[in-house]
């Protein structure tokens, strides 16, 4: 007997038929003698419908009221899931975020979990009930309903797994697991049996959409081992866990592509202390998230600063920079949107050399130009022409023999 | 400045456009300097959609989970209404039933309100906010979400009016107020300026669908004066209040028709003590609500028992009676579904005589046969052929000069 937390996303509980299928899957796990906490999202599409209604009554809805509104999506699903379990003879009880004792801070629409009082859930588990918890939501110390922001249901599941000391945490989604590359782009992409938290984090920040970084960070912090798998089949998924020694034998575990990037070049700024700080302060104040940053000093005491931002933010970035350039004296801003970021990720890079050289050579061999390079301990990211990034991904995947990855 | 509770039903908040209109109406009341608590129902149709989904996943959904599910309907409306108020520049905050401190007993799907802790609402009123409360729902001592059953949002409004010591309570619905008869049947029906709780109760139990009896009973118990009016126009409605002396000047205040009735005749039962008790015990055990009861003893020590039940229950009634008849010795059951109940109601009956005679004579004059008669202190109900009940209503309305009712 194990204590298991399962999380089913919006497509997995998209309609009553899907909910009944999920109930069958839960029943199967229950019938094996396991204790089960199940976290569910709103039915796919419901959250967007609710947001559309909110915008229809008020251009800028209050975040407190948005949370009140959006929390209904998951509350509907928990009730229907509990009923579907009753329908197949499984004792089950639903919990809103508040009832599950998920206490958050006061930041409506993007609250952080502070503590979980899991006592009542554990009590119901001991009485043989499957506990169904609304993902994405919590309650703050004032008794206000909060939501956790994007990827919130994954976070609920992982936080609950820590709180109830679960033996396993399974994140059911519409993909089979984590792949060495996007299978739609790289036909030979392989599903990974396991991956470390850090690799998963680097992949998430590099455009791989399996999970939001914050859930993985939470899992890493509380050492919650979880499996990403599909609710549409019974294939084993990918286990995400703390790095272990043998993982380093594989140099590169995945290739990720992010096409939602724009390159901003600030050229000919006077090279004196504080210029760069002013540039990035202005961007931060405008709410622009800056990713890759490269600075090089040219001749005659002028510097060029290049960085990437999400494509939708590029014009906001340009606007935010104009007064700064006037202040620090000169410089021009240029935006290039026809670029994309490619990253190769692997904890093996810590102990292996030559990864960058292999990547750059492979791309040079097919004539792909590298516009920007940044590196971390376990990742190399480059910017290339968006028209050739898929090809670059295939080339990189082959260069690191990922299609033969036996893990 | 007054403290006002307003309640808007499902059709009044049926879609985002209607919600924006309700927000305008609330703003107008607010702009007159009033403090406002607003109770809203789920958008019309939402509750039925949710029930349909529940039935699709489980034939007999648990009542606890039904409450969890249905409570989302009102929670959506409170958030949207608060947002719509923000959109027109009115400070507003939404409250779920639990947040509004509406504590109920444990009877899921038909909970009774035990207490209301209105402290936080009054605090927000004092801070100038309009408080939007989810109708129909509460919380029990175990922290479980409960719903109040049919007419629950009216009950929430009236209970809150008592709890916050409101000066006025306005129940907005899709009718203009309470009429002397159904205007679709009796063209000369008049809207009543006011009506006593008892008359309203008798009308509700006689098939007039304006409000559920329980809300009126609650208002009577806590002496909450309320007005029934339409959210689709600005006409004054009908004020429901404690009976006052001048009300008795009007002998009959309304005529109501209930077509959802079936007559059950149990004939030739042995007339001995306990027979009737056994009959009605069996019906009660089968969950059949019995309305009008008439017993007459015939010759040879046999009795006939006649009563009415809701039409949908007539066959259940018949089935429940079969073993009883076998036990008490003989008797036959016959069901007549082609009947309807007509009631005339008025507190003036307490002090005026001749009401029954006037009614019976008027019907006799047009050849309408009366099959059953029952009376209370302020009501006379009769059963007639369903094909002639509308005509009977017009005749009774005329006989008591209700089209000239100057109140």
What would your notes on this structure say?
Two copies of one chain form a homodimer. Chain A has 407 residues and is an alpha/beta fold. Chain A is built from eleven helices and 20 strands. Chain A folds into two domains: 3-174, Acetylglutamate kinase-like (Carbamate kinase, 3-Layer(aba) Sandwich), CATH 3.40.1160; 244-407, 2-Layer Sandwich (VC0802-like). Chain A has an eight-stranded mixed beta sheet with strand order 3-6-2-1-9-11-12-10, with helices on both faces. In chain A, strands 13-18-20-19 form a four-stranded antiparallel beta sheet, with helices on both faces. Chain A is globular, with a radius of gyration of 23 Å.
A few lines on this structure:
By secondary structure, chain A is α/β, with parallel strands linked by helices.
